[in-house]
Amino acid sequence: MSDVKNLVACKECKMLFDNEALKQSGQSSCPQCGGQLTKDWQGYLAVVDFEKSEIAKTMGISKNGKYALKVR
Ligand SMILES: [Zn+2]
């Protein structure tokens, strides 16, 4: 896993992505939902089993992955 500073968050689904990997694949929007990506996010949540995670339920997460807690 790369440095957290290289991660960008989706404004829509809050999922985190590796900025370098996105650049290399030519992605400029969220690969998950097509939402806008931002570096302006705080907090970090790794969801490994969304069906059993209360936080995931609260946040409306329906897929395992890494998420930003706060996205501006
Ligand atoms: Zn998204």
Structural class: alpha+beta
Strand content: 25-35%
Helical content stands at 10-25%
- What's the shape? globular
The average pLDDT value, as a whole number, equals 93
How many structural domains does the protein architecture include? 1
In whole angstroms, the N-to-C terminal distance is 24 Å
Q: How would you sum up the major sheet?
A: 3 strands, antiparallel
Topology as a string of helices (H) and strands (E) = EEHEEEHEE
CATH class: Mainly Beta
Q: Using the CA coordinates, give the radius of gyration.
A: 12 Å
* Low-pLDDT regions: none
Give the count of helical stretches. Answer: 2
Q: What is the topology, as strand order, of the major beta sheet?
A: 2-1-3
Query: What's the β-strand tally?
Result: 7
Tell me the CATH topology: Rubrerythrin, domain 2
Ligands bound here? zinc ion
- At CATH level 2, the architecture is Single Sheet
Describe this structure in words.
By secondary structure, the protein is an alpha+beta fold. It has a single domain (4-71), classed as Rubrerythrin, domain 2, CATH 2.20.28.90. Helices cover 17% and strands 26% of the residues. It has helices spanning 19-24, 54-59; strands spanning 7-10, 16-18, 37-38, 41-42, 45-47, 65-67, 70-71. A 3-stranded antiparallel beta sheet has the order 2-1-3. Strands 4-7 form a two-stranded antiparallel sheet. It has a two-stranded antiparallel sheet with strand order 5-6. A hairpin with a 5-residue loop joins strand 1 and strand 2 (16-18). The longest helix is centred in the N-terminal third of the chain and has 6 residues, at 19-24. It is globular. Zinc ion (ZN) binds at residues 10, 12-13, 15, 30, 32-33, 35. The site of zinc ion has 8 residues, from loops.
